[in-house]
Amino acid sequence: DVGVYGMELKPADFKNTSANFTNVVFIIVDGKLEIAKRTVILTSASAEKVYDGTPLTDARVDVDLVAGETVTATATGSITEVGTADNTYSIVWNGTAKEGNYVLASETLGVLEVVNASYAISANGYSGLYDGSAHGIIVNAPSDATVTYTNANAFTEAGTYTVGYTVTRPNYETITGSAQVVITPRPVTIVVDSATKVLGTADPAFTGSVSAATPLVSSDDLGTITFYRTNAAQAVGTYADVLSARYSANPNYRVTVVPGDFEIKTSSIKDAKLEAAGGSWEYDGAAHSAQAEVL
Q: What does the angle CA 118 – CA 119 – CA 122 come to, to the nearest 5 degrees?
């Protein structure tokens, strides 16, 4: 064991064997034997794993003792969340090695590291006709995740929009990506009614309507719809596709106008009769005329 030991030499331990000397007296100055403490280098283990919600530990410790001697040395470090921690240790001198024979020269603590786990999410874009409602992408992620977007992610007007997203989650990798919102102009058909008039009369008020099959989201989305004639002809006849519609342009709609026909008819009264009566007069210097009546 460690310590300083005398050699415990005595005169009786020596004998004069020289013929040249007689009556020799041995005077002893005792020497010393010293055993110094052994320096110990202690190293605890390092370990790494992907986060799984359970603690990461590694009990291994290397202590460079004299061969054959034993001690109980255990690494006690522990980490559960993503990050790093020193792998600390404890040592109990309950084996064959004696603590007094050793001195710790250096220690190297291992590092326990938990790294981010991976996981899957999905992102759904949107595609549909303009309907006046706000639409955005949908990111399907675990309940403990936080989703942020590069914009408001709420679009009403017709157009194509790209939305970027970032999904963060404690102890898991950050996921980024993008999806699109596509809002298509709504198709609308305005049907103009065909109309007629009698030759020589004023044009009537032209009419029409938005087809019930393609209704407006809001009745005033195209402003006030009016109807008009695209030609100025006044001769008797039928003029195809000359009745059209005016409306306020709206990028949220794709408008189709189905034009109407306009017919100018001759004057007539169904089943009418004309009776005319003349007369006979002696000249009297006054004006006279025949009379006619439509019955």
A: 140
